[in-house]
Amino acid sequence: MSHAQPTAAAPKKRLTTSAMIASIAAPGQRTTPAPFGNALVALAGSNPDIVGLTADLAKYTDLHVFAKAFPDRFYQMGMAEQLLMAAAAGLAREGALPFVTTYAVFAARRAYDFICMAIAEEKLNVKIVCALPGLTSGYGPSHQATEDIAIFRGMPNLTIIDPADALEIEQAVPAIAAHDGPVYMRLLRGNVPLVLDEYGYRFEIGKAKALRGGNDVLLVATGLATMRALQAAEMLEKDKIGVEVLHAATIKPLDLDTIIAAAGKGGRLVVVAENHTVVGGLGEAVAAGLLRAGIAPRFRQIGLPDEFLAAGALPTLHDRYGISAEAMARQIRAWL
Amino acid sequence: MNSATPDTTAVTSDGFPYAGSNISLRERAYRIRRHALRMGEVQGQGYIAQALGIADVLAVSYFRALRYRPDDVRWEGRDRFLLSIGHYAIALYAALIEAGILPESESETYGTDGSRLPMSGMAAYTPGMEITGGSLGHGVGIAVGMALGLKRKKSDAFVYTLFSDGELNEGAIWEGVMGAAHWRLDNLIGIVDVNDQQADGPSSAMSSREPLHERFRAFGWHTQRVDGNDIDAVAAAFDAARAAEVAAPRIVICDTRMAKGVPFLEAREHNHFLRVEADEWQQAIALLDAIFSGKTS
User: Which residues of chain A neighbour B144 with C-beta distances below 8 Å?
Assistant: First the structure.
């Protein structure tokens, strides 16, 4: 698979930060435009209960596609995330099926109490879909939701999903709409890489799925780290290192049965990769699940460090912080 | 006066269950206070001063303003009444008992293990409790969403949301105030209980609150301010809020007196969470009864 992430060697010309939401697609990579917005429009045509709400971020969360198609079902709440979540709760109480968008930092940090008490405690059918998860912006900590999963994992009733690519987003939209209860979904927007179609993948809430096999390493990944994990696995294959990639799109409830079964096979190194801090995300969820099951393989985490990250160009930052495909492959080689 | 006197009023067909009641709003307020004092006695302490202070507003709400069916609290045509201030649950339980939604016998369980009447109001626990309040600042925003949702359904029901002057400290209230005005939510009626008390002391000493009437008007709301313990004034304001022909949300700012109706409790300072001695509860109820029946003042 082609990819054009920079190597460890310093580029000759300094990369620029680009827009707030820099593309995560490599040059030449197949992409799908606005998979979330288009999937929501497709679904809303047959489900009149669906409404869309945002807090001044329709354009940057692909909800503008829905707003254009269904202007009378779109609620622009202004830059007011607490009102956004509370109003979504109110609409859900009256039978609507709200899809709510903002950036992950604002949902997790600013609106937490409103998601927790107005939505989750009452098991309301609100679907919170947030752009800029983890390290997908070069704007620095104000926009980088490196800890959103850690924050949300502690919230009862909330289903958490981190899709890997455009195909998964398209499939997740109807799935989370049909799911009874609140959902937090991380969003990749704009021209989103299309990868999983080559693996015959089918998204199911709560199911981790093996995308490829390998005898040396079990690489459990989620979100865009899965895309990078697949690229890293191909690089390692050239070094005769076999990597199984197990994609866990649903962080909560986590498919521990599948993960435990895979981790128990054949003494492989178990690595968990995520576009998230190593604190409180998929890595620690898997580690705790394995330990509770009495399984203690060699275990390593690939994720963002427990620090406020730098501003800059995404390829530079992904390589620096270890979630580019090359950086993943480097780390795994060093652990073997 | 026996608060268990059966009400002879039949549920009216248009959803105002006590429209033709032979029991006055003043008597309803008295009985709501009485129910609240009996619940307060179970705990020995708590938010009894707020309950006594807001009783007149709740009497007007449940016995004049709101459409609902006591035997069908989820009736789609009902007006929604949101208790943003979850710790006022004791007051709402008292009103729900008086309204025939909760049995009076259940007041003995207030705040006890396994009760449907927890200290802070929660939707899943109590029939007639629309939302889980208590994380202050939520009630206006939720009301905005419900009012939008009712308009989507072309329902003519209203959303009432009760919040407090202390709660105005929360920025989220003002997000909701702006949102309600932006969406011209003429089916949303806010009620602010201004009793000038919150956990650490007088609200007016904690945050700039006034001029409240001018503020809400500047935010685009149909605004009224009344003595919240003048039951006729509250009734008139609630009528006007509902009837006003403006494409705007409505607010009734109610200035109330903490512990209203029991003079020796009214006189206490720092009464946000009131400790009342065991023998004082019956004294309070006796005094309330005497004042209502005109035997003292």
Answer: 83, 86-87, 90
The model's pTM? 0.94
Alpha helices in chain B (DSSP H): 25-43, 48-60, 89-98, 139-152, 171-182, 212-218, 231-243, 263-266, 278-292
> What is the three-state SS of A57-72?
CCHHHCCHHHHHHCHH
Give the gap in angstroms from C-alpha A336 to the nearest C-alpha of chain B.
50
Q: Which fold does the domain A206-335 belong to in CATH? A: Rossmann fold (3.40.50)
Other Cβ atoms within 10 Å of A267 Cβ, number: 10
What is the distance between the alpha carbons of residues A72 and A198, in angstroms, rounded to a whole number?
A: 38
> What pLDDT score was predicted for residue B3?
44
DSSP state of B57: H
Contacts of B195 (CB under 8 A, 6+ apart): B49, B50, B53, B54, B164, B165, B203, B255, B256, B257, B258
Indicate the residue of A82, A88, A121 with minimum beta-carbon distance to B132. Answer: A121
Give the CATH number of domain B25-292: 3.40.50.970
Q: Which region among A20-29, B48-57, B237-246 has the lowest average model confidence (pLDDT)?
A: A20-29
Q: Which fold has domain A31-193?
A: Rossmann fold (3.40.50)
For A6-33, the pLDDT digits (tens) are: 455 555 678 887 776 667 888 889 999 9
C-alpha closest to that of A286 among A326, A259, A317 = A259
Phi-psi map region of A322: left, alpha, beta (phi>0 left; psi -120 to 50 alpha): left
Tokens standing for residue A98? 């709200």
Tell me the angle at which helices B231-243 and B48-60 cross, rounded to the nearest 10 degrees. Answer: 50
Residue A155 near residue A124, CB atoms below 8 Å: no
pLDDT tens per residue, range B202-232: 999 999 999 999 999 999 999 999 999 999 9
Burial letters for B79-100: b for 16+ Cβ neighbours within 10 Å, e otherwise?
A: bbbbbbbbbbbbbbbbbbbbbb
A95–B149 CB contact, under 8 Å: yes
Could you write out the DSSP letters of every residue in A218-260? EEEE-THHHHHHHHHHHHHHHTT--EEEEEE-EEETT-HHHHH
d(CA B297, CA B292): 8
Quick check: B51 and B258 in contact, CB under 8 A?
A: no
* Best residue of A77, A81, A110, A124 to probe chain B, by most B CBs closer than 10 Å: A77
B32 vs A26, higher pLDDT: B32
Rounded distance between C-alpha atoms, residue B177 and residue B221, angstroms: 8
At residue B5, the pLDDT reads 47
- For B9, B83, B151, B167, B224, the CA distances from B86, given in Å and listed in that order, are 30, 6, 26, 11, 24
Query: Residues 76..135 of A with a Cβ closer than 8 Å to B: which?
Result: 77-78, 80, 82-83, 85-96, 98, 113-114, 116-118, 121-122
What average pLDDT does range A177-204 have in this prediction? Answer: 97
Task: Give the pairing type, strands A250-252 and A299-304.
Answer: unpaired
Maximal C-alpha separation, chain A: 58
- pLDDT digit string (tens) for A227-274? 999 999 999 999 999 999 999 999 999 999 999 999 999 899 999 999
The CA-to-CA distance between both ends of chain A, in Å, stands at: 24
Domain range annotation of chain B: 25-292
Mean pLDDT computed over B238-260: 98
The reply to whether residue A90 touches residue B175, judged by beta carbons under 8 angstroms, is no
